[in-house]
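This part of the workshop introduces the protein records we will be handling. A record pairs a protein's sequence with a compact description of its fold. Comparing a sequence with its tokens is the quickest way to learn the format. To make this concrete, we reproduce a full record directly below:
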Amino acid sequence: MKRIALFPGSFNPFTKGHKNIVERTLQSVADTVIIAIGNNCEKKCMQTVEERVESIQRVFKGNEKVRVMAYEGLTIDFAKSVNADFIVRGVRSIKDFEYEREIADVNRKLSGIETILLYTEPEYASISSSLVRELKSYGKDVSQFLP
């Protein structure tokens, strides 16, 4: 049985892209997904950690393959403590990808745990306006990226 720890730092249960990543992870590479909410979230969130955990649990109610847990400390230490085979991170843009790839390299070196980077489905992804302008300057059709 594979277990995957999902750590999209700012996991928002009402963002379809995040929910989509959990569902795709279960369909493709996981038996269990653990959504981890860091305890440091209280500094930047409007909800307590307990409230965030409860709101995410409501979204996945009835799905015993998804667990939501609060943790303290380093992501890689938590991943080891729950015997995670992978860390899954959601990527919404090219900028996100570059940042997450660097984090994945560090996590692998420190813990030996691989990170899977999953782009959200195109309808949930974001793209920078500068990239749209650049693509347009090369004559590419950018209509799919515009609202």
Remarks:
- The chain has one domain: 3-121.
